[in-house]
Every structure is written in structure tokens, then in C-alpha cells.
Amino acid sequence: MNTQYDAIIIGAGHNGLVTAALLAKAGFKTLVLEQRDVLGGAAATEEIFPGFKINTGAQDAGLFRDEIIEELNLKAHGLAFRESEAAVFAPQPDGSALTLWRDVAKSAAEIAKISPRDAERYPDFVAEIGRYAQALSGMLLLTPPELMERNLSDAAAWGKFGLALRRMGGKEMMEFMRILPLPVNDYLNEWFESDALKGALGAAALAGNQLGVRGGGTTFMLLYQHANGFQRHRFVVGGIGQLAAALAAAAQQHGAEIRMGTAVSHILLDDEERAMGVALADNAEIHAKIIISNADPRRTFFNLVGPTNLEPHFMRHVRNIIYRGVTAKMNLTLSGLPRFNGQTDEAQLSGHIRIAPSLDYLERAYDAGKYGRPSPNPSLDITIPTLLDPALAPAGQHVMSITMQYAPYDLGGPGWDNQRDQLGNAIIKTLAQYAPNIQSLISNRQIITPLDWEQQYSLTEGSILHGQMSLDQFLIMRPVSGWSRYHTPVENLFLCGAGTHPGGGVTGAPGYNAAREVIKSLQGSG
């Protein structure tokens, strides 16, 4: 067999590009194959409308790991961030608004206007979230442990994590373990009385999951969302697609090859059922020592490998992975800046704008999605990136990106092709209650349904997380029990996407961890 490459990576999403850059830097001949003509997967910037650069999927890179930025020297490849002083602006139905700033004291002063008690408690809450999120952060760049084998490298890495937990002290460590499985509703009710504050904070715990605020383990997701710093929102200059561009440049600097518009039909197996290459849509074949899939696990094993090439027991576990995409996206081009209820300063709109006036509001939005209906009063997470980066739109105009929950993948009735415009109208109707002049400013709109996520971005069931993130699909259970270490039952086939530990979001961590395991395998094979 003519092996042309050390490694082939399927998919040029940010995790695949992280893996590619690290493999190339380690001296391995690496090829990335991407079926779309745009880098970044669901973290891409596209000129959907002339003159407007739109983040079609993910909106900011606050979770992207600093360790990766430093190791790949991404700033030298053009990666730059802008951070808003405003973290969350939360307009309310009564015409008021709550603004949470990155400055804790400034936030407390805002909270005092609606609840002096909550304002007094807020700094302690931020400190606790910071401690526990930092503890969780310590495991994100580790390969999940092999529980049935003794592994010295695992013991050393996880020993450091365990030591960090012990340094918290017994009482603090027990509290950390207590809150992880809690519904975020219960956790926030322990701290605060203000509906506006609890809604603004709690919405982050639900991102991408078909869970409501009363769902077990949602406090874990609240901590995960702050693992790189509390309310750390970072917008990539030029759009989030510039993160993928910087990663691609780093990979190419070290010799990696990237082919766009190149779809993989299936993974080639040799007579001993080991991965040996890929077949392209045009029937061409490319061989490599290692194949790495950035696709989600179900797509990888059912579509690219084929269930007949894997054991039924394993495939049953893969089939049972919970995806349940519930996220829709609306991207708008605006002729001017909208005016929100309670807004006194344009700077308030430069972070995230959240329509989540209470925990009960969020739970009612979830109730609709749970029964196969788009939420009539949805949770909205909104950014206007042109406030910090005006070059994304023509002078005087703006881009608005809206992430909506809940829009269930399975409607249980009329398909998404028939519901697209109704969904868009419902989002605008909800938004107009908080920004009354929004409809007069809209010049273009793009709607991405869960079905679009699946058909255009290859996300099974429209899950932006490559599988729901809950405690039963975390760490050694991600993607399935027994196969959490980026290896797969197919020899020489690895996973590097968000369906592996630690999960979704623009972190780069799955790609980073997978690269470490692939390098070990390539070095071991000589």
C-alpha cells in the first residue's frame, strides 16, 4: 500500500484544525479534507449578504483555550480579540434592563437597583463560580482516564487534578461535588431572589441542550460555560472564522495540506479491518497511517465506517447517544442600531444580549421544545459584533446574530422546510417586545434550523454540541463508555470532534487532546 500521509483529518472545523496544526508541528505529514468551501465548520464567518461578514454559527471564542493559542502562536497568524466591558445585557418585559459588566463591583451596583440583597451576594457568587469553574477547567485538556488499566501518564496528569481539588479543602470539595448534578434552577435560587438576575445567569447553562432549568446537571454546564473565566466573552476580529484561518495558517506553516470542497465518501479499511485511508466523493482514494474524524460519532461510525464493519454492541451504544438539537440561528443585517428597553448606553449592547427574563420563562420555553414545538416565547442570545468590529458591515450598518432555543430537531409534524418562516417571525416578534424598532431596521435575514445544521453543516440531529452535554455523556462516557480516549474500535481511526471529551463549544480542547493521543500512536508505530 502506498501511504501518502501520516494522518488524514476529515473536517476543517476548529477542532480538526487544532489537531492538524499540532500533528504538523510534531513533524507528521498531515492532510485535512473539508467538504465545504469555508473553513471553521459551525464556527465560520461567511459573506451571506454582499458587504456583510456574518458568524453563521458560533458567535464568540471566549472558551477557546489560551494554551492552544500560545502553543501554536496563533496571534502571529493574525488571531486578535476584542472584549466588551459589558458581559450580559438583559432587557425586561416591564421596560427596565439589567446589565452585568465584567467589573464585578459595577455589576453589583446595577443589581442593587433591583435587589440590594442580591447585590451584596453577587461578588461571593462570582468568586465561587470562579473557583469551581477553574477546578473543572483543570480536566478539560486531559485525556479521560482508563479506569480498568494502570497508566502512569494518566496517573500523573489526573493526580495533579486531584491535588488541585484537595487544595480546595474538604468542605469546598464536597460543595463542588454537590452542585455539579444540581438543576441550575436550584443552584441560583440558593443564591438570589431577583428573577432578572437568575434568568440572565441561568440561560448560559442551557446552551445547545434539550434541558430546562430544572434539568439535573445544568449547574455543571453553567460551570463549563465559565471554565475559561467568568463571563469571558471574546469576539474575534474579522469574525470567528478568523480563528479557523489562524489555525489553518499555523498548520500550513508546518507543512499541513488543506483541501476545501473535498467530500469524503467513506473510510477505507484493509483486510484486517484497520483504517487505511479515505475514499472521496469522486471515488479517488487517499491512504494514510492514521485517519481522524472531526465529524460527530454517529456520522463517523454509521456513515463513514458503516455499521457492518463494527460490533453490534458498540453500534448500539453509538445509536443511543443523545443528540436532540434544539438550537436555531437567525442572522440579520440592519440599517442602524436597534434601541432596547432600559438601554442607556450603546456600550451595553457590545457583549451578549439575553432575552431570558426569569428561570420560569426559560422553563416554559423548554416545555414547548420538549413536546416538539418551537418555543413561542423563546430564549434568545444575541450579539451585535459590528459594535466592536465595524469592518464586518458597510459603514453605518450592523450585523445581529441571534441564537434561539428551543427549536426541536424533531417537530413531530410538519417538517422544518414548512416551518422556517414561521420560526423567523416568532423570533422577530419576541425580539420586538424588547427592541421595538427592530423590524424597521432589518434589511436581510438568514434562518438556520436544526435541519439546516444537519444538512449543511453535518451536525447529526442539528446538535451544535455533537451530542447533548449532560453528566451521563461526560468524561469517560463521551462519546460512549469504554471509548473516551479518542481511539475507536477501528484500529488507526481516531475522533477529534466535540463528540469527545470535554464536549462542545469553541474550546479547541477535543482537538488538542486527540492530537496528543495520535502523536503517541504515530511515534509508537515508528
Can you tell me about this structure?
The structure is a single chain. The protein has 2 domains: 5-43 and 63-78 and 238-320 and 469-525, 3-Layer(bba) Sandwich (FAD/NAD(P)-binding domain); 85-232 and 327-406 and 408-448. The mean pLDDT is 94. α3 packs antiparallel against α4. The chain has 526 residues and is an alpha/beta fold. 35% of the residues lie in helices and 18% in strands. The protein is globular and about 70 Å long.
Please describe the topology of this protein.
Layout: E1 5-10, H1 14-25, E2 30-33, E3 45-49, E4 52-55, H2 66-71, E5 81-82, E6 86-91, E7 97-101, H3 104-111, H4 116-137, H5 152-167, H6 170-179, H7 184-191, H8 195-202, H9 218-225, E8 235-236, H10 241-253, E9 257-259, E10 264-269, E11 275-280, E12 285-293, H11 297-305, H12 312-319, E13 327-334, E14 352-355, H13 359-370, E15 379-383, E16 398-405, H14 416-432, H15 438-441, E17 442-448, H16 450-457, E18 493-495, H17 509-525
Helix pairs in contact: 1-10, 1-17, 3-4, 8-13
Instruction: Give the helix proportion (percent range).
Output: 25-40%
**Terminal CA distance:** 17 Å
Beta strand %: 15-25%
List the quaternary state of the chains.
single chain
| Overall pLDDT metric | 94
Largest sheet: number of strands, sense, barrel closure: 7 strands, mixed
**Tally of helical runs:** 17
Would you identify the regions where 5 or more consecutive residues have pLDDT less than 50?
A: none
Per the principal axes of the C-alpha atoms, what is the gross shape? Answer: globular
Rg calc: 23 Å
Structural class: alpha/beta
Query: How many structural units, i.e. domains?
Result: 2
